[in-house]
Amino acid sequence: MGIWHYDTGMGSCDYLCVPPCTSLAHVVSEIWCQYADSSPAAKGVITRVLPSGVAEITFSFGDPFLEVTDRSETPLHWASINGQKTTLKRYRATGATGLVIVRLFPWGLGALRLPPAAAFSNLNVDAEAVWPAIALNHLQDRLCGARSISEQVDAVQAFLREAIANTHPRGIRWLYMPSVSFSGPEILVEFRMGLG
Predict the structure, then answer these.
(1) Partners of 56 in the beta sheet?
(2) What is the pLDDT of residues 43-64, one digit of tens each?
(3) Confidence of residue 41 (pLDDT cuts 50, 70, 90)
(4) Coil, strand or helix: which one is 27?
(5) Side by side, which strands form the sheet with 73-75?
(6) Which residue, 36, 83, 100, 153, could crosslink 13 as a Cys pair with Cβ 3.0–4.6 Å?
(7) Alpha-carbon gap, residue 83 to 125, rounded angstroms
(8) DSSP helix/strand/coil, 162
(9) Are strands 73-75 and 65-68 parallel, antiparallel or unpaired?
(10) Whole-number Å distance between alpha carbons of 63 and 31
């Protein structure tokens, strides 16, 4: 565990990496926290994220991030499941940032009873597609009201422990996808029926 301070000359941010609690260590490899104050010089700066092959769950409690493509800039959801990246991704902060990023082991999505990792490749999926809004809203309140990084990490870990507890061995109890199809209708049907 350590804190790294990164200064680009246009702004700076701090990173903290913490190990997961014992009850999540079989699913989560590490938890990253990232904080940066807004800087006029940093406005418009693009952050490039290299392909990693790692799935993550990201919770943002700062100003929104935008995913930047050649054609558009799309706001990211405050809570998202980020699939394995096979291509370079570009993002831009719109102000001060605050993130808790949960890096999963390759089998992590399956342990959380989510659709297969391939269904999320190169996607940032709104977490409300798979977890109830009321649970996510409660987590957002806890993140924004936390007085320390430790409290924020604890809130995220409590949410994930609850997500694991609310699964059924043969499928998903929390999964709700009114209009989301990941890689085809067969996956959507399979997981709605609890056969996964």
Answers:
(1) 82, 103
(2) 667 888 888 888 899 999 888 8
(3) low
(4) coil
(5) 46-49, 89-93, 65-68, 73-75
(6) 36
(7) 8
(8) helix
(9) antiparallel
(10) 20
Residue with tokens 């990164």, as numbered in its chain? 6
For 142, phi and psi rounded to 5 degrees? Answer: -65, -40
Q: Is the pLDDT of residue 126 over 60?
A: yes
Q: Which residues are paired to 173 by β-bridges?
A: none
d(CA 30, CA 157): 11
User: Which residue reads 């940066």 in tokens?
Assistant: 36
d(C-alpha 69, C-alpha 141), whole Å: 31
Distance between CA atoms of residues 77 and 59, nearest Å: 9
CB atoms inside a 10 Å sphere around CB 4: 10
Query: Which residues share a beta bridge with 81?
Result: 57, 125
